[in-house]
Each structure stands twice: as structure tokens, then as C-alpha cells.
Specification:
- It is built from 17 helices and 22 strands.
- With 457 residues, it is α/β, with parallel strands linked by helices.
- The strands form 4 sheets. A 9-stranded mixed beta sheet has the order 9-10-8-11-12-13-14-15-16, with helices on both faces.
- The longest helix is centred in the middle third of the chain and has 15 residues.
């Protein structure tokens, strides 16, 4: 896969000790899963330092160590190559870019404030009807995950679809420089990660870096329904394509019909398509995937068949039918945009006895945290939600605001942790209830879903 010269060329590092150049079968940042003969890169993370695991990597058969902190290397083992680089995380990205350039295949990059994972999965699912498609697993979308995904590209692959996430200024630019995408999809610009990106203009500036760093042919597929992205329709000098429910979109949906667990729409005024999802925003996500299908020469019938058989990723507004109730698991993450979509989806449910919202904190909203949570308390109070259960420091503002908005105090409950919420749900849920569970990643709302599944299946 790589030799020492490749690593040095890619990273700008230097061989500080070890054997003459040899080939290595794989690369790893985790000593626990490292295969004998691999390169180990000592990544420094928020809660760990890979340099501390160099002895374990050597014991497990690593034949090369890429490091940036000499003081952490206690001994240079014989017959092992030690390559010092300025920064191991940037080094990982540089090696991934080196590997990506070995393959003359298009890379589609997907970013946005919400819907990234579902859109990435839709695009990969649809294109895989005709092509061998590689994608990053789950939300492997940061400065470590994206390089690891790129390193898994093989000669059998025709297309690579990469999700890109960010919560800091400059990350999308770095990811684009690593992956060198040819096509960029932006789902939306919303109030996510405001603690670090500042405001919506900051979010837009960060996300649009993807378009600025596309390689030839530099095609951008953009959601025209988004206020910020829609303004780009006036640019005629670049290959921009727009999707949405607007009549003047290149890829549009009209005559949208909601069913119990699906949405049907007319694509470009001609083709009837139905997707297995009850949320309107997934119509937009589907349109971006359909756009990619057309760009890669797929027939509309093949596109329709794949779109209609797509199943939502776990923890992304996933419908789970239990013996006693229906749970909509949207526990992976939460921001104002995705929370609104989820609440609207809950309110469209007509088969249940009661609609119950379990709302955990939305995080990384900075100074506007309380304001956003209070807004959704008022929003829920005006919607057909029968019970509001909030959890966490910021969500208390939502329950208080819901009471002020006129929702009965007997239908509003606040708890501090998952265990308390779960105990309450076990005592409260009735036959036929529909329960939406939504919160930011670190709130660990998936524990509530797992416990409900265990008790009610």
C-alpha cells in the first residue's frame, strides 16, 4: 500500500530512525486493531494521545511509526521505521490525499448543517445500482474520519461519496483539500455549531468553502430552498445545479403527498416517486441524490427504483415499531433546523393516541442556546404535541416557554438525565403512543431508545 518514501513525500516528514524503505500493507491510528506489518500514526485527540500507545503498536507488529512528539518516544526499536512529521493529524490527511490521487475516480462531497448523513447514504445507495461506490461509514466526517475513509478506496471503486462535517472555521477547506472532490452537495445552511462559527453568515462562509475548492468539473448541487444557497442561482459562470420544491429548480418536486410512513412527489413534473420517510426535508435530500444519478447517466426508472427502496440510517428520524408504541429515533444529533423538521414529522402522525416529544439539549449554540430552546418550547405549545418531556440544562428553557405559550403544565415534564426520563416513560407510555426522541450527540438519547426497544419488543 505504502512505502517509507511515499509517507515522507506525502507528509514532508523525515526518517529519524529505522530500516531502509519497505512496503506496508495497511495504516492504523488504533493500536488495538492494528494488523502486523502496518504503519501506526500517533494521532493526538481531545481525550487521548496516540504517542502513549506506540509501545502497544510495536508489540502488536507495527513496522513503522509516524509521530510528531519526540519527547514521547522513549526508545527506537530495531527494524522499525520512525518518521517524524510536523503534525500527525495533518500527516494523516496528507497520506490520504496521496492515496486518493492514485485513483482517477470522481469524489462527491456532501456537507450542510443537517441531513448530511442521510443525503450521503441516499447518493451512495442510488449510484450503487450502476457503479461500485465507496463511502465513509456513518459520520466518519472530520479531519480524522475523512482521511481514514479515503484510505479505503480500492481499484474496484468507480465513485467515492464523502460526507464532510465541521464545527470550526477552516475545517471544510482542509477536508476539501484532502479529498479533492469534483462534485459538491450542500444540503442547507442552519444554526448549528454557532459556538464556534458565530452566526448563519459564519456557517455559510464555512460550508461554501466546499464549492470554492472543487476540482474539475467543479459541479455544485445546491438546495435552492435554503435562503443563503438560493442566492447563488444568479451565478451563471459556474456549473451550479439547484434542487428543491421551487418550480424553477433543475431538479424539483411538486404535488407532494404525505402518507403514514412515506412521502410521494412528482419529479420534474413527470415522474412519480415515493420515498420511505415521513419528513419533508428528505424530499430535498432525495432530489440531490437524483441529481447525482442523472449526472452519472442513470436511467430514471433505475433512479426511481433505488430511491423508493432506500431505508433511513439508524438514529436519523428512524421509525421503530414496538409492541406498545411507535418510536421515531432521531437521537444522533440535534440543532434548530433538524429539530423543527422532526417536530413537524411527529405532528403529521395520525395513527397514534398521543404524540410525545422527548427533547434533549441542543449543544454548541453558544450565546443563543437559551433563546433557541425557549423558541422551541413556544413552537411546541402551538403544535398538536400531547406531551413534552425535556432533559438537560438548556432544555429547561423549552419546558418553561411551553407553559408560557399555553401548553398545560400537566403535559410538561423536565428531567436531568436519561435514567429519569426512561423511568418516567416506562410508567407513562400507553398503547398506541408515538414518541419522538431527539437530542444532541453527547446527550446520549440513544440509550433511551435502546431501553424502550428492550422492554417493548
Amino acid at each position: 500500500m505504502f512505502n517509507i518514501e511515499d509517507i515522507i513525500k506525502a507528509t514532508g516528514g523525515q526518517l529519524s530512525a529505522g530500516a531502509t524503505p519497505k512496503r506496508f500493507g495497511s495504516l492504523s491510528i488504533d493500536s488495538r486493531t492494528l494488523a502486523p506489518g502496518a504503519i501506526f500514526i500517533a494521532i493526538v485527540g481531545k481525550n487521548f494521545d496516540g504517542h502513549d500507545f506506540v509501545p502497544d503498536a510495536v508489540a502488536r507488529g507495527a513496522k513503522a511509526i509516524v509521530y510528531d512528539n519526540l519527547s514521547k518516544i522513549n526508545i527506537f526499536e530495531k527494524d522499525i521505521a520512525y518518521i517524524k512529521v510536523p503534525d500527525t493529524t495533518k500527516g494523516l490527511g496528507a497520506i490520504a490525499r496521496f492515496h486518493r490521487r492514485r485513483f482517477d475516480i470522481p469524489v462527491i462531497a456532501v456537507t450542510g448543517s443537517s441531513g448530511k448523513t442521510t443525503t450521503k447514504e441516499m447518493i451512495a445507495w442510488l449510484l450503487s445500482a450502476k457503479y461500485s461506490v465507496h463511502k465513509n461509514k456513518g459520520t466518519q466526517n472530520n479531519l480524522i474520519g475523512v482521511p481514514l475513509a479515503l484510505l479505503e478506496i480500492h481499484s474496484k471503486h468507480d465513485i467515492c461519496v464523502i460526507e464532510m462535517g465541521t464545527n470550526r472555521v477552516g475545517e471544510i477547506k482542509q477536508l476539501a483539500q484532502i479529498a479533492e472532490p469534483n462534485i459538491g452537495v450542500i444540503t442547507n445552511i442552519g444554526p448549528a455549531h454557532l459556538e464556534y462559527l458565530g452566526d448563519l453568515k459564519g456557517v455559510y462562509k464555512e460550508k461554501i468553502d466546499l464549492v470554492k475548492h472543487l476540482l474539475h468539473p467543479g459541479i455544485a448541487i445546491l438546495n435552492k430552498g435554503d435562503i443563503y444557497l438560493g442566492k447563488l442561482c444568479h451565478i451563471r459562470s459556474k456549473p451550479f445545479f439547484f434542487y428543491g420544491i421551487n418550480n424553477d429548480c433543475d431538479f424539483r418536486a411538486t404535488e407532494i403527498t404525505y402518507k403514514h410512513n412515506s412521502v410521494a412527489f412528482l419529479f420534474n413534473g413527470v415522474h412519480q416517486i415515493e420515498i420511505k420517510h415521513c419528513a419533508l426535508h428528505n424530499v430535498a435530500n432525495a432530489l440531490s441524490a437524483i441529481a447525482c444519478g442523472f449526472l452519472f447517466g442513470m436511467d430514471i426508472n433505475a433512479i426511481r427504483e433505488r430511491a423508493e427502496t432506500f431505508d433511513s440510517p439508524d438514529m436519523r428520524l428512524k421509525e421503530i415499531k414496538l409492541n406498545k408504541c411507535i418510536v421515531f429515533d432521531d437521537s444522533y444529533n440535534s440543532n434548530p433546523q433538524s429539530l423543527k423538521h422532526a417536530i413537524d414529522c411527529l405532528c403529521r402522525q395520525t395513527e397514534g393516541i398521543r404524540r410525545i416529544l422527548v427533547m434533549g439539549d441542543m449543544l454548541e449554540l453558544g450565546k443563543k442556546s437559551e433563546e433557541f430552546h425557549a423558541y422551541f418550547g413556544h413552537y411546541v405549545s402551538k403544535k398538536p404535541v400531547d406531551m413534552l418531556i425535556t432533559m438537560g440544562q438548556f432544555s429547561k428553557a423549552a419546558s418553561d416557554s411551553a407553559k408560557k405559550g399555553g401548553m398545560s403544565a400537566t403535559c410538561i415534564f423536565h428531567f436531568e438525565n436519561c435514567a429519569s426520563v426512561l423511568d418516567f416513560l416506562h410508567k407513562t407510555i400507553k398503547e398506541g403512543d408515538v414518541v419522538l426522541i431527539k437530542g444532541s450527540r453527547s446527550m446520549q438519547m440513544e440509550k433511551i431508545v435502546a431501553a424502550l426497544k428492550e422492554k417493548n419488543t
